[in-house]
Each structure stands twice: as C-alpha cells, then as structure tokens.
Protein: Glycosyl transferase
Organism: Mongoliitalea lutea
Amino acid sequence: MESDQLKVAILGAKGYPYVYGGYDTMVRELGERLQKRGVQVTVYCHSALFKEKPSIVNGIHLVYLPAIEKKSLTQLTHSFLSMVHACFSDVDVIFVVNSGNGPFGVISRLFRKPTAINVDGLEWLRPKWKGFGSKYFKWSSRMATRWYDRIINDSDEMRRVYLEEFQTDSTVIAYGANPSKGADVSLLKKWSLAPESYFLIVGRLVPDNNADLIISGFLKSNSQRRLVVVGDVPFQDAYAEGLKNLKDPRLLFTGYVTDPEELKSLYHHCFAYFHGHEYGGTNPAMLKAMGYGCAILALDTPFNQEMLQQGKHGWYFEKNLESVAELVARAEQSVEEMQHLRETARLGLTQRYNWDYVTEQYLQVFLELKQDKC
C-alpha cells in the first residue's frame, strides 16, 4: 500500500453537496464526517444537476459523470458509469447506495474492489414500480446479496426481510438525525398558520406514502384544524394532481419547502405529524419529526413500530379511513397526551440515530473491507 490513508468512493446518489432525498443527505452527512476523520472521500455526481463543477468541496473529491436522462434510466446509467470509473481509480473501498444498483457489484467483483451497498427499503413492493420495475428491484436486490462484499440495512426489520427473502445477513446501521430544540415561529406567517393549529404530512406525493388515505381520513373527521401537506413529485403525475385538486378549506398544499428553517418551523409547531410511509427502513422524515419534537401519528407497520419503540413515541392508525378519522378525534381530545409525546419525542433518538455514531459504524465496515483485501 502506498499510503495508509483510507480512500472511499461513494456512488448511487445525486452527488455532493446536492440535497434532495434521503440518500443525498446521507452522502453529505457521512462524507463530511469521514473526511474530518482523515478518510479521502470521492463522491460521484450527476453532471446535469451541477452548473458549477468544482473538483473539491469541503475536502471531498467530486467526479461528474453524465447519464441517459430518462426517468427510469438516469440513476442506473449514472451508477454504471460511476462504478466503472471507481474500479479504474485507486480507491480502497466502493460504497454504493440504492438496491437498484445491485447488478453492478459484478463489475467491482471482476476488478477485485471491496464493496458495500446500502439497500434501503422494500423497493419491489412500492406501488410506483409495477410490473417490470417491481421484478427488476427484486432481482437487483438479490444480485446485491450475491456480488457485494457487505450488505447494509438501516433497520432490524429490514435485516429480517433480507434473511427471509434472500437468505443473506446484513450489517444494520441506522440513518442519522439532527435534533433541534426550537424553530422560528414567525416563519409560519408565510402560510397564515398558528402553532398547533394544523396537522402535518411531509413526503413525496406517491402512493406508498399514503397521503391519499390520511387526507381522506382527516376530511372525514370533524377537526377544525388544517392539514398541511408538504411535498410533491418532480414530474407530472395523475396521483399527485388528484390530491392537489381536492377542494377543502382545511387542506393546504405547500409543494416542496426547500428552506430548512421553514421546514423545521412547520414540523416544530404542528399539533401532530402524520407518517404514512409504508415500505422502508429508517425513514428520514420520521427522524425529523422525532428530532423536532412532534407528536407522531404513524401507519402501523413493523418499520414504524421499530422507530417509535412499539408505541412509546407515537400513536398508530390502520390502513383505512375510519382509523385515521378516529385517531384525529382521539388526538384532539387528548391535548395533554399530545404534549407529552412532543416533550419526549427526542428521547426516541437513541445513539443508533446519531450521525457521529453512524459514521463510526460505516468507517469500521470500510476499514474491515480494506483489511480483507490486504
């Protein structure tokens, strides 16, 4: 080895410091912390998303590569080119995010480059991947277990799923959180909102986040509060348009809220936060709700049960309108219990959700992979 410095390449997200989704946030949080620990970090970026293309930002090396700019091909073609490029580089370990990149592990195996992949949630069950898409994600997840040296899941429940579905064990490293004790209440004026005058949903307007269920259940209730829906989809979509066209004075669709302080204020001052995400491990929106002190009302799934410690840090609803409407009524009749959930929400952010701890766990994996190669 020419140098003892660990060199890690990260690919599969949009790039750095681009922040749009959960993977992009993880790349930023993890990459910056690894760099400060003396690791040489290289992040692969979608060139079309960056007007300026500096080679180094905050000590992180950046490589910009093109992709076939089609909805279903952009990410895969970019990851393919990134993997090939990384295999020809001098990095010690390649870290890939997204189970859709499962087949590309065969490339790194041919080049004998140690690899780890974070496979995220149950992509093959998500309603948006019907037919071929669903089959591809199931196949690619299986390929990931075959070709990558280390599989990483972000929850114990996802580890169980991979053991059951693919007979493969994985390392569990949760997603990190950035808790905050306060938020500027004046930022709510932008939407003419007052503290605790609204319920909140945050997430992409896609079927597996169940915004339609929550909205319909809420409208079925007698609540006089508003339901604020933060999020959208970056393309024309009948499902999202159908929701946004619903007419009721209690509904407020903000679209994307890109200012982190505005988003924090919406979380921090809501009466309760609705979480309808169905097919994932550790969910970033849920972590924000916990870190910003929300009373959480979540769809009853094994993943949400794990995050909320079986009801210690939130209440649950079933996947039907009546259950949502009943939970709205119960919450509004239980002001003291809602306040208690707000006051104790951050206690649910145990050490496993601390970004520094998360980074240490990833660093251990990368060092083990480098050592195995030697």
About this structure: The chain has a mean pLDDT of 92. The domain at 185-352 is CATH 3.40.50.2000 (Rossmann fold).
